[in-house]
Design a protein that fits this description.
The chain is 37% helix and 13% strand. By secondary structure, it is α/β, with parallel strands linked by helices. It has one domain: Rossmann fold (3-Layer(aba) Sandwich). GO terms for molecular function: hydrolase activity.
Length: 300
């Protein structure tokens, strides 16, 4: 049956919008910045989904992360000698070092018409500093349950806030971070209770067999500079970049109360480009549990 004539313009408009979206995606690149103890590998399934949707992407390894991350000398030995006391080889990594890696990637992909910088969790610090230093390289910045320094300059300032009291995972930290020069965890722990706490904190909605593979890829040390160094943002630079926050509704590592606090304080400090906010179901790690949905949300 021939559709009514009055439907034709609506269908044409819908088709034009789909065409424009696909055309825009062909000129868009997503620069993906991982969180603590992870690496560029965390984004692999999301990148496959993005490619299937027509979008290019590149994932960054911050200093001290990824498969080349240095390990404590006893990490893979029986009895784990020195794990609680050995100073991290990453103790001298600075926030400037981390932001420089992000900046280098942003410069290399600037040939794309549209660059979207995506940061997860602790990666929000280096990503924000990179955007502050070169806002002309970023067309939109997306925080996936990530640290936003718009209201308070250090990730530790939010981690210690009353709104974060319900967060899990504090018992995962080993030793004295100041003495170690790192926030250290033990992804290969033989203790079932420790492993379960790691799962509940970050991966509670990831299938158990997949979680075991994921935790084996985590590195134990987060350079202390990443959560401890102040990141100072300005309205004239970072504040002019359109920004999106992707909330994770069942996040146990950064509960929604602290996510919402970061959003609200950033918007109060720099109101010219307030956050666009979307909520995803599930845990702190949607790239592990539902990468296709994450990719679809990013392209929208």
């Amino acid at each position: 049956m021939t559709p009514p004539l009055h439907d034709a313009p609506r269908n044409d408009l819908r088709n034009d919008r789909k065409h424009d979206m696909k055309h825009d995606l062909h000129h868009t690149v997503f620069v993906l910045v991982h969180g603590a103890w992870h690496g560029s590998w965390q984004w692999a399934a999301t990148q496959r989904a993005l490619a299937g949707l027509g979008a290019a992407s590149v994932a960054v390894d911050l200093p001290g992360h990824g498969f080349d991350a240095p390990l404590p000398s006893g990490y893979l030995l029986p009895g784990r000698p020195g794990l609680l006391t050995e100073r991290s080889q990453l103790a001298d990594v600075t926030m400037d070092d981390c932001a420089a890696v992000v900046l280098d990637t942003l410069r290399r992909v600037r040939r794309y018409r549209r660059v979207v910088l995506v940061a997860h969790s602790a990666g929000g610090g280096p990503a924000s500093l990179a955007a502050e230093r070169a806002p002309e390289l970023v067309d939109r910045i997306v925080y996936l349950s990530a640290f936003v320094p718009g209201g308070r300059p250090r990730f530790f300032d939010y981690i210690s806030a009353p709104e974060n009291a319900a967060a899990r995972g504090r018992s995962l930290n080993l030793g004295d971070p100041q003495a170690l020069g790192a926030v250290r965890i033990d992804p290969l722990s033989p203790d079932p209770a420790y492993v379960e706490e790691l799962r509940q904190t970050h991966y509670q909605d990831t299938p158990a067999d997949r979680f075991d593979r994921w935790r084996s890829a985590l590195s134990p040390d987060l350079p202390l500079a990443i959560p401890a160094t102040p990141v100072l943002l300005t309205a004239a630079r970072w504040g002019r970049i359109p920004r999106t926050f992707l909330r994770c509704a069942e996040d146990q590592a950064l509960p929604t109360a602290i996510q919402d606090l970061m959003i609200a304080e950033a918007d109060r400090s720099m109101p010219d480009e307030p956050f666009t906010v979307h909520t995803l179901p599930g845990s702190h790690t949607p790239f592990a549990a539902r990468p296709q949905q994450l990719a679809e949300t990013l392209v929208r």
